[in-house]
Amino acid sequence: MLRDCGTGYARNVRRIECVRGRAIRYGLFSEESIILKRYDRLIFVSNSDTALGPMAEAILQNKFLLDVLEVTSRGAVVLFPEPINPKAEAVLVSNGLTMKDHMSAPLLAEDFDERTLILATSENVKQKLKNQFGELAESVRTISEFTGESCEVSNPYGGELSAYGVSYGELDILIAKLVLQLNEEELLC
C-alpha cells in the first residue's frame, strides 16, 4: 500500500508503474531491461572536496530519486582530510542541509567502474582527472555537461559568503535537472 506523503508521491509512483507497464506491453523494452539500474553510485568531484562537492552531495541526498543511489563526493587534489569549508556549511545550513561531519577524501582509481557516475564540478576538475587517471576518466562529465547545460558552476573559493550562496543556487538548479535525468534513465534502463 502506497502512502501519499503530501507531495503526490503515491500518484507519481503509480504513473511510473503505468509507464513501465506500457513500455513492456508495447514491446519498447523488455521487463528485465526496465528493472535494471544504470548506476549504483554517483560521485561529485570538486578540486579539494571541501565546498562544491559536499554541497552537491548534500543537495542530491535531499532530492527524490526513484531508486537507491549511493551519493558521495571526492576531491581531485586532497593531500589530507579536511572538514567542509565553514562558508559552504553555513550556506547549506541556511537551506536546511548540513555536511558538518564531512571530511575530504581523494578520488581513487578504485572509484571508477561502469556502475559509478562521476561528475566533475567544472571543466578544470574534469581535465585534472583525465590527466591523472587517463583512460579511466574517459567517462567523467561535468554536472553541466551531463545535464545538457552550457553554464558552469562558479567556484566560490576565497570569496564572500554570498559567493558560496550563488554556487549553491547554481548547483541546486543543475541537480534538479540531474534528478529528472536520472529518474528518466531509471525508467528506461
Tell me what the structure shows.
- There is one protein chain.
- The protein has seven helices and four strands; from the N terminus they run ααβαβαβαβαα.
- The protein is an alpha/beta fold and 189 residues long.
- A four-stranded parallel sheet has the order 2-1-3-4.
- Helix 5 links the parallel strand 3 (116-120) and strand 4.
- The protein is globular.
- Mean pLDDT is 87; it is low at 1-14.
Descriptors:
Rossmann fold, 10% strand, single chain, alpha/beta, 189 residues
Question: Brief description of this entry?
Answer:
The chain is of the alpha/beta class and 189 residues long.
Topology record:
Layout lengths: L8 H17 L5 H5 L5 E6 L5 H10 L8 E6 L10 H9 L21 E5 L2 H11 L7 E2 H5 L13 H28 L1
Parallel strand pairs: 1-2, 1-3, 3-4
